Amino acid sequence: MRLLHTSDWHLGRSFHRVNLLSAQAAFVDHLVETVRRERVDAVLVAGDVYDRAVPPLAAVELFDDALHRLAALDVPTIMISGNHDSARRLGVGAGLIRRAGIHLRTDPAACATPVVLADDDGEVAFYGLPYLEPALVKDALGVEKAGHAAVLGAAMDRVRADLASRPAGTRSVVLAHAFVTGGEPSDSERDITVGGVASVPAGVFDGVDYVALGHLHGCQTLAERVRYSGSPLAYSFSETHHRKSMWLVDLGPGGEVSAERIDCPVPRPLARVRGRLEDLLADPALECHEQAWVEATLTDPVRPREPMARLAARFPHVLTLVFDPERPPEDTSLSYGRRLRDRTDQQILEGFVAHVRGGEGPDDRERALLSRALDAVRAEEARTEAPR
């Protein structure tokens, strides 16, 4: 049976104020074409369909379009809710939608009720484990202490019990939305830490043939049978070096797994550049980034004038600007008090300016301003301390 594993669409999300709806629509086009071209038997969407619980109308319309097009191909689709989705909203109409071959799994209590599909080699049971918020689902799953490992372990115990009741040779696939130990996170996933612990061991999924994971945005293989598809688009500059893709998985008659990455369309490459402003504007090696979405980190000791406008002249799609000025090494052998000993107030102020500028002290105009400020402070102190 051939499966297409994807996740973390985050429909409705933007990228540093850039609307990504057209890029997300292009991904849906690519998904539908891949299903048709590769003769996929089932599509797996492992959570975070939307970016927030109440998505914008345009995102809902795009999701509706995706469902209609997948249903028109007569290819079953199994989806679970993620931590960004509202499980109850996503699950509305699940019974009706199921008639079109779209199976929404959003209820934790139903995690051991599989979608059963068959091919020439027999049946495959698909178990959808929506994102399990420990505090909300521990009672339904019979867990005393709230924690990701505990609730996911309880859900998988139910899955294994159901699988054991099925005919010998039934193959199994689990969809889950979680942070599994060994996965590499990025800056764009929402923190799901509970009690200081966010991750669960991969061993919690033992006993099934394939685990289609969602939540982490980088495509990665934790084990031959346990994989993240990652998000189809980049949602932070920490994903600059990600290769965005889906997994095309072939599940053999005995549960054997082989997987191939299918690249997703890239609306615009990402680039992180770092250095002094004049160097970034002149360096010929950065020509390849001129049409990318750019995050620029400036290391100038003194903040340049109009840096964003000047960067945009070369990099028209620059989106973020970070300042990290170069600083000379400090003598840490002396205490702060020792370093200030025998220095005047004026020298202390000038030294502070030099410190925050990476060693470049104030010019004559700025020295005069500092002097006048000190004089004003002293005058105010003298006024308040004078006898009345």
Number of strands: 19
Main-sheet strand order equals: 6-5-4-1-15-16
* Helix fraction by DSSP (H/I, runs of at least 4): 25-40%
Q: CATH homologous superfamily of the largest domain, by name? A: Metallo-dependent phosphatases
Task: Give Rg in angstroms.
Answer: 28 Å
- Examine the coordinates and then state which fold CATH places here, giving the name of the CATH topology of the largest domain: Purple Acid Phosphatase, chain A, domain 2
What is the terminal-to-terminal distance? 93 Å
The computed structural class is alpha/beta
Question: Which spans have pLDDT < 50 for at least 5 consecutive residues?
Answer: none
Query: From the 3D coordinates, which CATH architecture of the largest domain would you assign?
Result: 4-Layer Sandwich
What is the molecular shape?
elongated
What proportion strand?
15-25%
CATH C-level class of the largest domain: Alpha Beta
**What's the domain count?**
3
Order of SSEs = EEEHEHEHHEEEHHEEEEEEEEEHEHEHHH
